[in-house]
Amino acid sequence: MANRTRPVLKRIWFTPEEWAFIQGKMKQAGITNYSDYIRQMAMKGYIIEVDFSAVKELSKEVGGISRNINQIAKRINTTDTIYKEDLTEIQEYMEKIWQLLRYTLSSQRSERR
Questions:
Q1: In a domain, 80, yes or no
Q2: 3-state class of 95 per DSSP?
């Protein structure tokens, strides 16, 4: 025990309902180790869980749009010709990106309320 980084042991008792609640909170936080969870809660007072699913979806959508824009740029560089349709298409893609950003930001704001 002398070489342990945490030599102080504390025991705590829970009702079955309390223990089920704590296990649910641990699962929500993505923490599987009880000691780590209790230590973080005792020292920090809270654990923040961040949902990045909206950002991942936005990233996926923007990635697809950027690939389309890159194809247009490649065609322009290959032919040395810019067509009005190309510019219109790029403008439409940019508008779609702005719409996605606005939607993602507004949905994140409404979830926090």
A1: yes
A2: helix
What is the pTM (predicted TM-score) of this model? Answer: 0.49
> Over the stretch 82-106, which tens digit does the pLDDT of each residue have?
889 989 999 999 998 899 888 888 8
Residue 1 lies in a domain: no
Is 61 in the same domain as 75? yes
Exposed, middle or buried by CB within 10 Å (0-12, 13-18, 19+), for 110? exposed
End-to-end CA distance of the chain: 48
Task: Give domain status of residue 3, yes or no.
Answer: no
Structure tokens at 86: 């190309």
Tell me the residue type at 103. Y
Burial label for 51, CB within 10 Å (0-12, 13-18, 19+), is exposed
67 and 102 share one domain = yes
Instruction: Please count the structural domains in the chain.
Output: 2
